[in-house]
Amino acid sequence: MLPWRESLGVLNCMLGFVGLSLVLGLTLGIGPSALGAVLSFFTFDYFFIAPYNTLDVANRNHVLALVIYLAIALVTSLLVGRLRARTLLAEREQRRTALLYDLNRDLVRGETVGQILQAIVSSVVTIYGASATRVLAPDPDDASRGLRVLAHAGSTKERIDQDTRTMAQWTIDHRQVAGIGNEGRRIRSPHGVGQPPRPFHRSQSDVLFVPIMTPDHVYGVLEVRDRPGGGRFSRDDARLLGSFADQAALAIERGELSERAAQASALAQANELKSSLLAAVSHDLRTPLTTIKASASALLDDSVEWDPAARNDLLSAIDEDADRLTLMVSNLLDLSRIEGGVLRPDLDWQDVPAFMADVQDRVRSVLAMGHHELTVTLDPGEGAFPPVRFDYVEIMQVMINLVGNAAKYSPDGAPIAVHAAIVGEGLQVSVSDSGMGIPPDRLPHIFETFYRAHDHGPVSGSGIGLAICKGIVEAHGGHIAARSDVGSGTGHGTTVTFTLPRTGSIGEPA
Amino acid sequence: MSASSSHAGGRILVVDDEPQIRRALRTALTAHGFEVETAEDGDDALVRIATWTPDAIVLDLVMPGKDGFEVVRDTRTWSQVPIIVLSARGQESDKVQALDLGADDYLTKPFGIPELLARLRAVMRRAAPTAETVLTAGPVTIDIAKHEVRRNGQVVHLTPTEFDLLRVLAVNAGRVLTHRQVLEQVWGGYAAENAPQLRVYINYLRRKLEDDPAHPRLILTEPGIGYRLQA
After folding, report:
1. H or E element: which one contains B182?
2. pLDDT per residue over A445-500, tens digit each?
3. Is A304 close to B27, i.e. CB distance below 8 A?
4. In chain B, count of helices (H) and strands (E)?
5. Do A304 and B25 touch (CB under 8 A)?
6. Do residues B112 and B139 share a domain?
7. All domains of chain A, ordered by start, with CATH?
8. pLDDT tens digits, one per residue of A357-385
């Protein structure tokens, strides 16, 4: 029996068995390796130590050798097994780090809390192969401690069943991971009959509830459900999910802070807008009021005998500045309608030549001060000027604003031209002056509310006139644009042109 | 009389960026016998102050470019011409700043012409050199040389500080003085912590001089700005 026993030699056999322990330790871990060491010890004794085929040992020296062998085999399997465990652990840590790194990258990309949560649930589903993942959070609108779904991925239902509610609530309250199995116990309520929810107490679960929390605040619960084919969730999985949840909580905190910061800055911007509106409005209202008050109080003074020219001067100042006040108030009203998105043009067929004649009447006082001359030209194309559908009052407001601007920004006595034409299926109106013009870099902004192209120039204003023109024209489904020759030395000034669809259409409120 | 027949009232420079306001003030002031020139910005104003030498200036504080504050500051480096600044309600700190820079009085827009005329007369009267040592304000006469104050002919006893305070208000009668100006002239040097003390002394004076100290008609409070002795 075993003819190669003598030729192989005891020493080689012994080394062979140590090698076996090593291989077992590397591949299967400490337990199998130690078992292998013990079994090989007996095998070796049985087959290779005389007397053969018994566990007896004839030579006393062999006893010592056997004991040393056993000790070496055991120590080897122990060391190698530990090495393997550490390697596995390191690999797991590496995988976990990689996953967290990926997640972090997604989280940093997410700008809103919603995007961040979506990145978390998506990556949990991808990485774990979970059939469903949700983020549940206490519903602030629900006093009865209801939960709502903030984000979900995989095949989830919107509904939150009673078990889930109970477990999630337990997780939030206790700030600990909880897990339940699918089979067996159904959890009814924390206090009623049946099994009360417990923290993650078993090594295996089908559903995990992981709190998403910072030291200060529990934002919600990460619910990870079923892993078809991937086995149940282990403690390790729970730990890794805990890291995910921690990252998520930090990201949410950051997201909430930046959302709050954005809200605060939007609020600050709105406030700034409001106060600049107030400053502009108070100046624009006070100026005509000052003229009116000064003129009226002067006329009321009995101690002066007014000559007709001075009297007329003061009365026309009152008249003109009452018009300015009216325009200002109309502009403010329109601005609030435009900003509120409630500007609805009252469309009706209008006779353009008659409308333009009315424009000339109404801008008379605006033009009188700077002695500007207004010329109106009409180009109907062929035949008579066809009627056009628009809101008479609102387009009048546009015309008064445009002509008023032309007068304001032109030298005294400079002519202003209004040209109305039928172009294609629309009415095109342009208002041209030969004033100071608008620098090209400012031209794109002139229709913005409160924007003033000549902010520190000699002309004051609130910067709402053109914004209103744009709002009104766009509410008619038309468009408005400006062109300016500045610094060319030809003195062409500025031309503002707007177009209205001839048959009228209501545009999107601005 | 005709609105533009005489310029007996003096030369007034009106500085405002709003042409309508310039026009109304020019017409109204001309009708009241003033000779009026206008300027539409700060630089223009400074040139006219130097070349036309007005007797008083009506100056809008808020103007594009060189504003009213700069005009007051520049003018005061070489001229004591009376300046009335125009400002909006709710801009009390602007008024105080302009007054501290050397403006003589202020008016809040909108204002009536009678108000403007009264202020103009007050600042121009003060600008005229006077050797008088006896000042009269309503029922009160103040003899600065004799350190004597009489109310309806009766001698009123004032402490030295009260007298100093009344003297400062009286030589500026009709004109508003900021808290800082009063504190500097009475106590010497400005200290904000003295402001309550100022209020206390104003109350002492009112109790001794006013018919009804709760509703003063002589020593008026200009809210947020200072005090004015009604001329």
Report:
1. helix B179-186
2. 888 877 766 665 556 666 788 888 998 998 898 999 998 876 555 556 889 999 99
3. no
4. 8, 12
5. no
6. no
7. 4-104 (no CATH), 118-258 (3.30.450.40), 336-501 (3.30.565.10)
8. 999 988 887 788 778 899 999 988 778 88
Three-class HEC string of B25-80: HHHHHHHCCEEEEEECCHHHHHHHHHHHCCCEEEEECCCCCCCHHHHHHHHHCCCC
Strands A426-432 and A416-423: antiparallel
More confident residue, B106 or A201: B106
How far A464 CA sits from the closest chain B CA (Å)? 18
Question: How does pLDDT run across B179-219, given as a tens digit for each residue?
Answer: 888 988 888 876 667 778 888 999 999 999 998 888 999 99
Nearest CA distance, B43 vs chain A (angstrom)? 12
One-letter amino acid of A337: R
Q: Does B118 touch chain A (CB under 8 A)?
A: no
Rounded to whole angstroms, how far apart are CA atoms B142 and A61? 136
Q: Which of A96-100, A290-294, B226-230 has the least mean pLDDT?
A: A96-100
Distance of CA A484 to the CA centre of its chain: 38
Q: Which of B63, B93, B127 is the last residue of a domain?
A: B127
The answer to whether residues A483 and A495 touch, using CB atoms and an 8 Å cutoff, is yes
Read off the CATH number of the domain in which B33 is found: 3.40.50.2300
DSSP secondary structure of A24-86: HHHHH-HHHHHHHHHHHHHHHHHHHSSSTTSS--SSHHHHHHHHHHHHHHHHHHHHHHHHHHH
Q: Could you say which of B69, B97, B127 is where a domain stops?
A: B127
pTM: 0.58
For A35, the token pair is 């078992």
Interface contact A289-B3, CB threshold 8 A:
no
